[in-house]
């Protein structure tokens, strides 16, 4: 069930600095741990979508994943800042502040409180493949344009998924990607050309610790 409880006075503190009219990509995830693919996806999106910023939304926990080995939020936030290493990539704990694990709540909060910003939801092809399992996924697609980053070998599975099929008529040609932030949702684009196969799962030891950590 969606959690609509919001602590208004703290929301502004959890949102990175911005100015009216900015085009902002939103990349949500556990970041357990953050890695270079997160950074590469963000920089790729900044260029292809002509964004001003990408905000990493570090979730308290993913409703579709086992969270038993999830590191503390503060540890993941600090690690994310170190990996990002780009002034255009900001790290936020907004979902913890508004006490939700659901993307729909995050988007509702951002659109309501910051109507002058143009948001684009960014996700990998692996997430598109299971997007139909997300809470209120149709409402998410109806509220914010989405950019899907190809992650071979997930391409076919992602584009054949229930969500991709349901939203097929709203898909933009890849050469129109720079227009996505200005489009009224639903609108989405599938971006190819980024060849990275890192995953947070592959960077965790069986006990949940991060590989390379002390």
Automatic annotation (TrEMBL):
Q: What InterPro entries does the database record attribute to this sequence?
A: Cyt_trans-like, NadD/NMNAT, Rossmann-like_a/b/a_fold
Provide one Gene Ontology biological process annotation: NAD+ biosynthetic process
- Domain of life assignment: Bacteria
Q: Which residues form the Cytidyltransferase-like domain?
A: 26-188
Q: Which reaction does it catalyse?
A: nicotinate beta-D-ribonucleotide + ATP + H(+) = deamido-NAD(+) + diphosphate
Q: Which UniProt keywords apply?
A: ATP-binding, NAD, Nucleotide-binding, Nucleotidyltransferase, Pyridine nucleotide biosynthesis, Transferase
SUPFAM superfamilies, per database record: Nucleotidylyl transferase
> What pathway is this protein said to act in by its record?
Cofactor biosynthesis; NAD(+) biosynthesis; deamido-NAD(+) from nicotinate D-ribonucleotide: step 1/1
Q: What class of enzyme is it?
A: transferase
Specify one Pfam family. Answer: CTP_transf_like
User: What EC number(s) does the entry state?
Assistant: 2.7.7.18
CDD domains the UniProt entry points to = NMNAT
Example of a GO MF term: ATP binding
Q: Which HAMAP family does this entry report, sorted A to Z?
A: NaMN_adenylyltr (MF_00244)
What this chain does, per the entry, is described as: Catalyzes the reversible adenylation of nicotinate mononucleotide (NaMN) to nicotinic acid adenine dinucleotide (NaAD).
Question: What family is this protein classified in?
Answer: Belongs to the NadD family.
> What name does the UniProt record give this protein?
Probable nicotinate-nucleotide adenylyltransferase
């Amino acid at each position: 069930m969606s959690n609509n409880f919001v602590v208004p006075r703290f929301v502004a503190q959890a949102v990175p600095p911005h100015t009216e009219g900015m085009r902002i990509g939103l990349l949500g995830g556990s970041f357990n741990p953050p890695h270079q693919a997160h950074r590469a996806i963000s920089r790729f999106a900044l260029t292809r979508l002509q964004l001003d910023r990408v905000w990493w939304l570090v979730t308290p926990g993913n409703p579709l994943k086992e969270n038993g080995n999830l590191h503390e939020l503060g540890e993941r936030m600090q690690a994310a800042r170190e990996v990002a290493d780009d002034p255009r990539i900001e790290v936020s704990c907004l979902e913890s502040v508004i006490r939700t694990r659901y993307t729909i709540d995050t988007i509702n909060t951002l659109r309501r409180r910051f109507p002058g910003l143009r948001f684009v939801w960014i996700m990998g092809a692996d997430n598109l493949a299971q997007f139909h399992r997300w809470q209120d996924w149709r409402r998410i697609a109806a509220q914010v344009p989405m950019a899907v980053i190809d992650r071979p070998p997930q391409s076919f599975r992602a584009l054949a998924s229930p969500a991709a099929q349901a939203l097929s008529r709203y898909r933009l040609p890849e050469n129109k990607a720079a227009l996505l932030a200005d489009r009224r949702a639903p609108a989405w684009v599938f971006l190819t050309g980024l060849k990275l196969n890192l995953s947070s799962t592959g960077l965790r030891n069986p006990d949940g610790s991060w590989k390379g950590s002390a």
